[in-house]
Records
---
Amino acid sequence: MSEAVLHDDHHDHKPTGIGRWLFSTNHKDIGTMYLVFALIMFFVGGAMSMVIRAELFQPGLQYVDPQFYNSMVTVHALVMIFGALMPAGVGLANWMIPIMIGAPDMALPRMNNMSFWILPFAFTLLLSTFFMQGGAPAGGWTMYPPLVLQLGDGFPYLVFAVHFLGISSIMGAINIIATVFNMRAPGMTFMRLPLFVWTWIITAFLLIAAMPVLAGGVTMLLTDKYFGTAFFDAAGGGDPVMFQHIFWFFGHPEVYILVLPSFGVISQIIPTFSRKPLFGYTSMVYATASIAFLSFFVWAHHMFTVGMPLAGELFFMYATMSIAVPTGVKIFNWMATMWRGSMTFETPMLFAIGVLFMFSIGGFSGLMMGITPVDFQYHDTYFIVAHFHYVIVPGIIFGIIGGIYFWLPKWTGNMYDEKLGKLHFWLSTISVNVLFFPMHFIGLAGMPRRIPDYSVQFADWNNIISIGGFAFGLSQLLLVWVVIKCVRGGEKATDQVWEGAHGLEWTLSSPPPFHSFTTPPKVTDATAHS
Amino acid sequence: MLFNLTNENNLEKTIMVMPNRAMPWQQIMLIYFLISTVTIIIALGFFSQGFTLILPFAGLELTALGVVLYISAWRSNIKEVVCVADDKIRIEIGHNTAEKVFEIDRTWAQVVLERSWNNWYPSRLLLRSHGRQLEIGKFLNEQERQRLAIELKKILKK
Amino acid sequence: MFVNKFKQIMFAISVFSLMFISEMALADYMNVLNLTKGVTPTSKMVYGLHMQILYIVTAIGVVVFSVMCWSIYHHRKSKGAVAEQFHHSTSAEITWTVIPIIILVVMAIPATKALVFMEQTGDAEMTVKVTGYQWKWKYDYLDEGISFFSSLSQDSNEARQRNSGIDPETVENYLMDVDNRVVLPINTKIRILTTAADVIHDWWVPALGWKRDAIPGFINDNWTYIEEPGVYRGKCAELCGRDHGFMPIVVEAVPKAEYAVWVEEQKAIQLAAAAGADREWTKDELLEKGKDVYATNCAACHMAEGQGVEGLFPALVGSAIVNNPDASEMIMLILNGKNMMPAFKDILNDADISAAMTHERNSWGNTVKDVIQPSDVKAMR
């Protein structure tokens, strides 16, 4: 920023072609690229889940080899988590955080550009393994040794892809921390930050604490395979279970890394459409922080069946149950925000309410699985598949989609097609429940996860589940259509866009930022968070 | 942030602009220290169990975080001082001292607030004179830049 | 229009609650909706705990969702609701922190009891060691010296091949049947040790009420006490490679007297097998046995016709090693394994290996067509 020169008069020319995007350091450009990338990966990962559901449509093997099926299961998870959910969260952060805190841009714009462009590179590495000797990763996204070490030529590509994805998220997290620390507008104190910014700060801290653990873990896999170390090889004095400890020490905070930004989004949406300030702002901040804190003490509930000492099992059971308390506080605060408000139900609000209902269902099954003795039955069945898909799809993805509908008029200056948006919501909600709810039943009845074929008593439910899956996949094409339509034109959005909207982002014009202000923005409690 | 440094009995009018520093360096260091402690404790915990390769990654990451925090704090320390005298406008830019000094002729000076081709990019505030121009207040947010433009125009009119 | 929308919402909500309620009401009648009650004290305890938590979360769900629906219905703008501006209430916040804590404590007490009960592995009357292999199970009866492998049954295995043309509905116990069942006595405290030879597996029979990982290099300690005779089926529950979905478990629980008879039979079979390794076999004997050994141990990777899977598992048809007149390289490879191929020296006996090799070297147009005797294998061990 310090390079200033006197130079010849010339006018700012419109940058043309790919260069505008390739070298852009503007937070809105980069945010847009993140979101578009996330959408593309959402469909790539979605296509893989369609392969899975097609194979499971009826018993017997029809379309793919079991090994390829395992690859689909594995890469679907990696693509969705690292390619769709995290970039979507970072995209929203890039777009909204500078505007929400009154900063001109992110703290390090060039690093911002780099952290985005690492992603396509990392996914090229990951997806190229499909064309290699030994195929794509097929040992589950959790990469448990010794199974993952059986992967062929694709193994180092998997490890390096994970490294690059980690580097990208770390750069994003560092940038967000520096931006929020240094670049808030005068008067924008921490306790006046919009909740979306708060959830992202906490997410960034989680990333900083958890990512080195994953990076170290996969590196030790690499040295185990190629350099003769025996970190996880029992024959050489190592312990394969320790990888699971390491992985989930990263993996459980990762769950919150994914879910907290979505919580932040609906904390912005619900007050807006209830026309009422967010209930219990302070307790929301503390609840978020304590969820993040507790997330470092519950990792072993992902691996109750490895055979831990009784004391360990009890500790992780109690710690896991205790997370229900701050999570409950958040749900109740959202309910209290809606209580005695004056609600309208535009698409973002519908998605936020969808999150409230269906994330709660995921929370209930989560609580059930926290009970260790019963988890011995639930573990690695479709019950857990139902649980985490309820948390991720109608919990996180609905939150992100709600945020996209919420801010799309601000980004483009045009209103989206409300009718299509609502149609998208109802189609998604119905199909997502047809897709995931019956998984509870077959899981309890004894169908293990990650199997390409099943015994015939599960045939009927799998049939229904697959139909729900195809319907959900198709419904998402509607989102693409609504977004394209909105970008190309439509009814002009006002600056405030939504009647009940408060906060800095709504005082700027749509799209931001140009307008002739005569007074600087003043941040007061009334406008900071609502 | 804008500061009008004009002294009442001075003929020169002086405006200083600098980015808003939302957090003092001491506080940044304190939080950095806390984050580092947590991350290092985790890494050392695994190290003590024989899983040595987590520590170097934690170290690299914390170094990167420290460097980034330092750079962004350093950048938010920049000041631009515009002194408008009778015949000249002097612009001093620097962190602790005036690292660059520009002078332009006041008579032909013009304040231009240029919006970008697409209004989702930030505007640019330009001081123009004799076909040369200097951008100032790049680090300001949109509203502050608007205010700076208005202030400068007011001064130059007199 | 808004009324319509709320009808829709209410409809959706009632569908959810119906699903929950139907789950409870039909629990006892339909076995593809709920957890099995099982046949051990552990499984019954777990089932009781499961139902208890299910009722609690359903009750919480009904209350929370009703409040939300009531609020959505009454506090909407189209009905003329005016927003109030309150934004905190300490008493409410304390209430909804404390009540969940109380509920959690109520849930934690029986859960702790159950867990402590499940971990009492001492004073068992007999011990069975379960070892997971890619992709079959090995059972060692440590007290009786009986030891055998248990793989997916032949008819399921044929039907599960891609585009086999066999309708799984016509196969009895499709993917849930094995060649050798684990026979266990009822009313006996049995210690079950789980471990694995290659990657992590997980031994799970729902009717026993637990699953436990089988981890290479480590032994996990479990116990069971089956109260009712019957056949109980389970599966591997930890992703363990290509055929993870195809390594079922079948436990046959029988009265103690019947179990004693079975033990004697098994001992006799093992003696016969040991004797078989030392005698000279005819080519026909070897080919006949080799076909079976190949199907259960080799076909999962090298496929039924020895064609392999491109990029993953090499073909045996025309393979230089298989067609080498000097069999020693092939014997060493089978005994010690290579890359993904497991070492078979502890899995198969000499007769099995020689039979499988004879089968491979005489089939699918392979040219050697010689006979490998068990003594040839024995010599290489």
---
Amino acid sequence: MPKRHRAHWAYRLVPLALIVSLLASGCGRQYTLLHPAGPVGQTELNLLVLASVAMAVVVIPVWILLAVVLVRFRDNPRHKGSYVPQWQKSKFFEVMLFVIPLIIVTIIAVPTVRKTYALDTLPQQKDPVVIHVTSLDWKWMFQYPAQHIATVNYIKIPVGVPVLFKLTADSPMNTFWVPQLGGMEYTMPGEVLPLWLEANKPGVYMGRSGQFSGRGFVHMVFQVDAVSHTVFNQWVHHVKTTAPQMSLAKYHALVHFGYAGEESFSSYPAGTFPTTSHGFTLTGSSPMVMP
Amino acid sequence: MSQTLSKLAREQELPLEFADYHESIKITGFWIFLTTDLVLFSCLFATFAVMRYDYANGPTPLHLFHMTPLIVETALLLTSSFTCSLAIYQSRRQNKNGALSWLILTILLGMGFVGTEVHEFVSYVNSGATWHQSGFLSAFFTLVGTHGSHVTFGIFWALTLVAQLVQRGITPRTSRKLYTFALYWHFLDIVWVFIFSFVYLSNMTGGKMV
Amino acid sequence: MNQILARLFPPQTRRPDEVVIEFGIIFAMLSLVYLLTRLKKWGWLWREWLTSVDHKKIGIMYLVSALLMLFRGGVDALMIRSQLALPNNHLLPVGQYDELFTTHGTIMIFFMAMPFLFALFNVAVPLMIGARDVAFPRLNAVSFWLFAAGAILFNISFVIGGSPNAGWTAYPPLTELRFNPGVGENYYLVSLLIAGIGTTITGINFMTTILRMRAPGMTLMRMPMFVWTVLVTGALIIFAFPPLTIALLLTLLDRLFGSSFFTLGHGGMPMQFVNLFWLFGHPEVYIVVLPAFGIFSEVVPVFSDKKLFGYPAMVGSVLAITILSYIVWVHHFFTMGAGPSVNAFFGVTTMLIAIPTGVKIFNWVLTMWGGRIRFTVAMLWQLAFIPAFLVAGVTGVLLATVPVDYQMHNSYFLIAHFHLALIGGTVFGVLSGMYYWWPKMFGFMLNERQGKWAFWIFVIGFFVTFVPQYMLGFEGMTRRMYTYPPGLGWGALNMVSTIGAFIQGAGFLVLVYNVLWSMRYGERDVTGDPWNGRTLEWSLPSPAPAYNFATIPLVTHRDEWWEMKQSGRANAYKVKSSAIRPVHMPKRSAMPLFMGISFFVLGFGMVFSWWIIAIVGALGVIASLFLSAFDYNDTEELDPQDIRRSEAALGRLEV
């Protein structure tokens, strides 16, 4: 009997070893979420680490406790634990079992609530760049209302400046996600949802959709090119002077099912981005703007 | 021994439908069913509440709703709830013919309600307000229509009850069936009160929820 | 005619693999018909199963269907994993991949997990509370046949008309007609509506049974934990399924009758679908996991030979989870712009669920503390559950941390999280319950040695599959991706995950072998109490006679049967001949089967918008309602003499 149990323990270690080896490989560059390139992503990663550590404090002892119980109290004449079949309550344990998880949850919940509000407010000190994002079947269309230019499937943003994305869809739902800059937000028809991100170092970051939107879903990818402020202004000027205009007919062609490469437009027709919606504002203070 | 006797005596005071153990279980089950139906209607109310301004260039409640059919429908349905209670009262007095007459009157009032509602809906559709037109109209027709189809189902149910009462008289089983039908009917009455106030009245006062 | 054929068999159902499966199904059905005719078993099938209203037999029918659906959903999963094993892989066409993840999710939740649990509800609950049947035996059969109608309807979409392809969550406007022509989504909507009616009835039925039909003396706080969880599951079902019904119904109205609920344009609001769906969806998670908790609360005390630790706390935490489960649904869409106040509220309520769940896990461990743990297969599944569910719970709290969820939403981290929760919780739970109650269902034991092989293979495959998926989440891979380019570093982890999935598949095959082998060679259970059980079902012979209890027991303790054995009344289960009274039993009925068939016809007609067929089906439904309204002859009385005879044959009669 005891021999067989030892064999079980060897098996139990296999997944554990696998987890450890995989965790050890977690430092590679391909783990994009662990290498944020902006304050939003950094905040989210910090919270992730805090919550993981807080919970590990409880979970690892429980695993050890379980292991100890299984060894001590297995049904074996030589086992060490004493048999107490009627033991079914203990005030001390029952109180502790509520209190310990409550403490852990509090440790996680307080910063969660604070960061939830913080990430929903644009930093005040700098003027944001505003980009209107529309997900189409199956491509991304970006409009810069201040610069009045438009792009498809790529954007350029200045480094060190918050970018306010206003998200909508003229298609089934998608999510707008640039993992290295920060979390995602849905694009939904009839709603305009806000999301702000910021890059604090130049680079090219991959963006994609996290919400399945039909057979072309895997083509819902775009590039975010974070560049210095001067390069950004040069690029805007370049697009304004060299790129073609987006006509209404071109917009309707874009809305149609299909794929597209990267495109630039020196202007775009009015009325292609909704002015009213069901959505919430960025501060969350005024819900439900009614038409 | 005396204990069982007193228990029996207590049972005698219970209405017939509760006195029989197996039948009383069915009443418990029916209450739980009514809970699910209540949640069902709540979801439709919630859908109506969030979509009530989505006119999408279609007609608004101010153009659409009129008082007359609304008053007629409400009067018919509320009265039918009263007559339904009288049917239960008569069945508890073991008065088969009394119960039958009140039940038939309930059915007639219910039919009047459904007829008025169908007429109301047809007039909306004829004026061009189909449910394809806007989210508001979809939510309106579905919520009120679901209530109307519940009433229609209730009418057919009551018709089978009439046949069973004629066939078998007032037994623990038929009285239980009558009782559960009455629960259902009163429930639809309550739902109607909410439709009346939240769907019609509050939207007829200029589009603001009271 | 050609048009009809083109609708029934559109191009996407004519792929080579599907044609092979199609012929396989036809062949299997023909051989089944041949076998039944050859063995002259049609009458037996009709009398004993198709028209049965016995909860024990309905439970077995649920179990068989659930295992079949586990196979179908598992094959879907293996095809998904094969497609994802390598970057830029084109093993499957893109459309088929979309269909596979949709059917995989839908089948596993609605047609595998739920019926598997209902199987155990049916088998165990009436026996545990000392009842002769459920409150509404005939409605119980209706529930089963509606589930069967829904499941068959959903599965024929594979070969007739094309499968749904918008994911098991089916967010509009992707399900709208202009983005999703064809009948696939209609199949999804109609079959879930039909199965949902059945599920709602099951919820009502078991709530009523537990509230009204417990044996005398069995107060609420003397009920076995499993019965408690079934009771709250019933409550969850009756509150959770109506929102699903409405969400599906409104989508169906949009598709078939041109209303404008969730459409793009015409004032439609897709967001409302998402709210309604998750108003159902989150309680659903607890519908499938709370009964598993209940099973563990039965298995752990039995195989630790010790009382359940902290029974009142266990009841309290089940109730707390039930209530909390209704105020967390927004955590499925923090990223839909509900604003920080709403998000913060729902994030915190979600984290609060960790507290009662943690209490339960501690209580199971403390139940083992001071016991004598027997490592049976049922117990092993429970022991694998604890670490798996801890990981699932921890990652769940991470996902409830709103800013973190912005990064994790819809990524493979989420996929890994809910697979660990649903397989580690529900599947391990139902398999534990299956091994535990199997002798009670069939009268023979499943071979323990083979069961352990199946267990270890499956559990190792399980971790190998899903741990890499957490890593993939950190690498930014999102769910439902048909393929991915090389160079993102996703290839190796996906390959490992695929290998793990095939190991799980091998584990399932060993489990099937275990069942088939044991059917032929398995040890008979002659005592009725093979595990040294604690609750009333083990005081009965295996399998229990049709009337369950010859005399209804009087309950005085929580673990009634164990207390009886402890106090030396080992023969207490013997029945006094004079105490046996006539027993009222429900009569078997063809109405539930007819109702199921009618719903199937109605659903099929609706899927294709062939209204004549739909009306025929609807008339069938109305006819079965009408006939049962006038059927007053639905119970029969068992002669005490017959009961005496059968109890004597079981050696349980005390003269």
---
Amino acid sequence: MFRCVVVIWILAIALGPAAIADETCQSPYLPKIEGQEDYVYVWTLGVEGWGDGSDKVVTVGANPNRADYGKVVDSVSVGGRHEAHHGGFTDDRRHFWVGGLDDSMIYVFDVATDPAHPKLVKTIDDFVEASGGAVGPHGFYALPGRMLIPTLSNAKDYGGQAALVEYSNEGEHIVTHWLPEDAPYGYDARINANRNRLLTSSFTGHNNYMRNLADLMGDSEAMKNFGDSVIIWDFHARKPLQTLRIPVAPLEIRWAIKPEHDYAFIEAALTGELWTVLRTEDGSYEAVKSGEIGTREEQPLLAVDISISSDDRFLFVDTFMDGKVRVYDVSDPRNAKQIYERKIGAQVNMVSQSWDGKRIYFTSSLLANWDGTGHEDEQFLRAFDWNGEELTPTFEIDFEAEKLGRPHLMRFGQIGFWAGRDVGTAETLAGTP
Amino acid sequence: MLVRILVLALLLVGCGAESGHEPTAHAVHPAPIVATSPEVPRFEPPPVGSYELPTIQHVDEYELVSSDGTVAPLLGLVAGEAAIVSFVYLSCGQACPLATATLHQLDATLARDEVLAGRVQLVSVSFDPERDTPEALATLRQGLAPQGRWRFLTANDPAEIAPVLADFGQDAVWIPERDGHAPAKLRHVLKLFLVDADGSVRNIYSTGFLDLRILVNDLRTVLGEFG
């Protein structure tokens, strides 16, 4: 029998970060979940007397077609309390890195082998030493084969001098880039690969973020130690090019997702303002105040997290102090128009949305010593549907009743995302039919 | 929305006899490669030598099988050389052709580069040794007609590829087919690896970084050719 082999490779690949951006707010170098997420992973601060009191990754069922919808599927403690804060996936989405802002511990979970049951596979306990003194690993941002980790502080004085630290996916330190002396504060780090530009923002150091919030806000000297800088970097060269000033505490950065949109949104936490960083004709960037977050009389509302829709139309903004989300139409990036607001709880911090923009999730905790007290210390994950005009509640998890802790960062998982068999092995991954 | 579209048609035609379970060599009638370049990236790369490329990880040397059927080292570098390593498989429909097209362009660019020519190896390694036999890779190689040092490697056994992938940190999972047939497609993140003669991985490129200018500048930077 004769066979004629015709090999035709026809490729139509959408290049660039938009094509591989994650569910709206993650690294452009990460495969995204476009459909229904099955799980929400919640990096949770331990609370003394609640269960084992340890920080933990909590897995919550998020697929309405599954029996575990709206339920806690799994909870994996890391042992001890470390000021659990942020986390992120590696570029192959197989590992979920989470960190503690207090003692700079980093934990790496395998979420590919069994997405319903993340497994702690590596602990990095020498981050401060290995990085040359960086403290407070804040973000975990996937680069090809490595993680970019913006920090908040340093071991010299626990003040605001921060760094960008790179680790290999295997968990080895690669390099540390200290932020410039005239713009030392760190917080977020986000890349626009189309432009080879990295944006970093600024918060405050360990001395401040570990203090009781009421004490801190009453200390006028300490309140001076917040950053107002946003740095534009040549990403490939890792060199700062330009510093913009956005008072005060410009935190979360969200590049617009459509590649022709050369701008990013940033919320100024202490002044309650929404800002847009736009590329100008000469290739430099300008910062423009594009909206108010609440009224001036209400400040500080602590605008803590933002989330952009995949069509660059809606920006969700959470304000911690009043527990509200405000939704802005940001079709005109210089003029953000608030179109909706809703009280999510006594306090609210993080907001995450699905790629299709239909499902929005909120968590309640900011920092152990900044969260409310008494009845204000509500701790939850609350899920909503968004129809473009309003939010409709779908399910919630009471993290106090479940004795889990203070829920913070959320990331999505999907059964079968890695289903199959690793090349060259007999290992079959969960979700394989 | 500036979505850069790359359309690459790589047509290789081979007709041969299939007798029993023995693989047979294909008569090869390679056709020209037709490729349109990706849209010009919207930034100017930083100059050669103006930045550092610290070691991301170290990889070992491995013995694999070349497209001519002989045992060959994966890297086989000597001092003053570097390699760009790419993992692909022939039945891949999306990412691999992009990786191979990028190497094809790089091969042509390097051939015209007085400094880098002869000092850079391009290496395409198959994820799929069962189907990507030396003969099949030879067909691909003939179609691509490399101008410089571009080698195509496979293995005698799929299990020999697993430690290589693990060492490089290259994810790759066979997607199961529901009708019981053997898996045909892999899920993997496209990555190219720049490796120096010490086995140090100095950069890793995925779709956001597949820019010839960056690749060439990085090679010059790693090889200390700043002129």
---
Amino acid sequence: MRQFRIQYFLISFLAIVLLPSCAVKTVSGFKEIKKEGVYEVSYFSDKATDYVYKAHISIYGKDFGGIFIAKKINDSIYRTAFTTEFGNKLFDFEISDNSFKVNYILEEMDKKIIVNTLKRDFMLLLKQEHSYDNKYESSGFEVYKSEDNKRYNYLFLDAESNRLVKLVNATKGKEKIEIIYVPESSILARNIVIDHKNIKLKIELNFIQ
Amino acid sequence: MKNSIICMFFLLTVFTINAQEQKMTAAEITAFKNGVINVSKNTKTLTADFTQFKHMDFLSNDIETSGKMNFKFPDMLLWQYTKPYSYSVAFKKNKVSVNDAGKKSEMDLSSSKMFAKLNGLIVGTVNGNMFDENEFAISYFKTAEYNISKLVPKDATLKKYIKQVELYFDKKGSMVSQVKMIEPSGDYTTIVFKNKVANASIPDSVFSN
């Protein structure tokens, strides 16, 4: 028993000591600048725009498509919905920076693992304000690091255009979700790819309206 | 989930038709049904252009998509979106194949009773021969331009997805010219058919994706 405790202690100790060496690679080699502030994502921010995208979802080798819709309905809340190409609604959520409500979800999709994945992805995509506590720089990018619910968001801005081009959601040691944006204007990304690093799930969105 | 996705497909929609609707008399209903059944019996093939409008209450504008439809008696259907993206679904006997901008997938419907039902519904929607009182509670209306049948599903599963299907028939040709599918939420999809051509020769190869 005593030996077991010692082993346990040693393992814990080693884990703590070694942990920093497995730190997330997202900004390794970047120049760190101590800076705090709030970064506001301007994509999806225009209340007059219906953000309608053709979606391709690839999950564990299976592909399917649909239409992704997001609309800012007031200063803090988005309605977001997903339909088939034929117009049938698969889900309809209400999302703000700190709330999530299911208005509708197709019964067959109403499973905890699916709802939680959709919740995480779309709350991340539609998050408007990121309070950052650190900034990094490298050639071509400025990066804001923001704490988000036991994880971290790294927001990559193109240094020249100052537009958001990538968002990495990571734990202390591992990247979990990466969102790549191809900007059309300050309020619109014409192509968005949400790629999961821990599960085989990739969502690609192409603006159509 | 795929079942539902495809099924939903047929739950298409209608445009707001502003002309006043009147209930048909019993004699008018009989004459109307006979006309539709007669035309659908003599329709061996049908091609048409279609425009689809997806209405969601929270959007500023309906989502508009359009394409071409090919039907061949008794059970082949190609539904092809060309604008603003390329996406097509082919129904051939018990097989459904999808071509999503080059990404292809296929599924077998024979194992699903629900699907068989839906397949019947699809074909019924295209040729208008949907007078099955066991499946739907049906009511009949007329305007100066259209004969209208409104179908409320009786099947509990179908009911979850569709509140009502409305079929608008040209008075002249007894063919479906608009379909409106209303979801339980009240959001709806309208499909308007144009340039209908009946009984032109269509090779079977058209129905492979």
